[in-house]
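Issue: ligand-bound run for 6-O-phosphono-beta-D-fructofuranose - logging full I/O for the record.

Environment: standard queue, default settings, no custom constraints.

Inputs:
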Amino acid sequence: MKRIAVLTSGGDAPGMNCAIRSVVRAGLGADFEVSGIKRGYYGLFEKDVINMDSRSVGNIINKGGTILRTIRFPEFKEKQTREKCYKNLQELGIEGLVAIGGDGSANGAYALSVDFGFPVVFIPASIDNDVFGTDWTIGFDTAVNTAVEIIDKIRDTASSHERVFIIEVMGREHGFLALDIAIAAGAETAIIPEFPVSMEKIIKDLEENKQKGKLSSLIILAEGAGKAHDITEKIHQNLPDREVRYVVLGYSQRGGSPTYFSRELATIFGFEAIKMFKEKDYGKMVGISGNKIVRVKLSDVISGKKTISMEKLELLKSMAI
Ligand code: ADP
Ligand code: F6P
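Outputs:
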């Protein structure tokens, strides 16, 4: 195998650039030639490819986003689209692919490897942390830190005005981001798709907290569990004497300079991916499980379902007394 390629796909995540940097430099160090595919799987379809050398990935370790860009390309779900991509890979002399992205991108990587037996290694990168088979995805840690920094500021004004704040965070249809943010920000409640909280319970908790002298509250709402505006309205209808406000953190969680952990995870994952190519150990994802780097079959990654930690839910509850 002479030439491999690397691409970033799906929602961008802080640390993707560190992973690209690691794949390129470890790849060059292992005597591979390395191509960069622009804009995810769409770049395969369009043959939007650049040659990468060590300097191509200089000064990006601290930058959020992805220098290779990314877009959502649902057409890749169709086999005929993938057939064109595979043909393009052959024409470009690319014999292996490192795909960096979230759970959707993992499905794309799996499809490419199964359809054509094409050597693919997948690196999990998403602020959602919803990829099965790895404890952490690149960028999750940074997104939690970004959100907590903002919520600490909201806490100041919430306590000054004795207000209730609903803070809506990302995570698509999962609550991993919301739950870790809630624990780290010291929120009273996390409303997540996996474990919805009834309005009756929210009202009851707010009333009980007020009796205990807790006059301001922070409620973290995962976007997949509802809209902050609606929850705010409902609380106001039930508790007209309480001041309630909401904030939607939105895309601020997707950017920013990656934290140490996101950088180190991405660098390790990229290095491991090259080792896998050298060992001809394809069709797998690089992951981390219990602090050990693991290689997980893509068939297991896409068929598995990551579950919410009951211990973390208990922890949040016990801290919110
Ligand atoms: P993420 O990777 O962040 O979860 P998406 O769900 O948008 O983001 O997936 C990224 C890209 O992966 C999609 O735009 C599409 O090109 C590809 N993809 C997603 N799901 C599949 C699938 N089931 N089969 C093939 N390709 C897929
Ligand atoms: O998958 C990452 C993510 O940020 C989700 O948390 C969010 O729901 C989604 O991407 C937003 O997608 P887009 O960037 O296409 O609007």
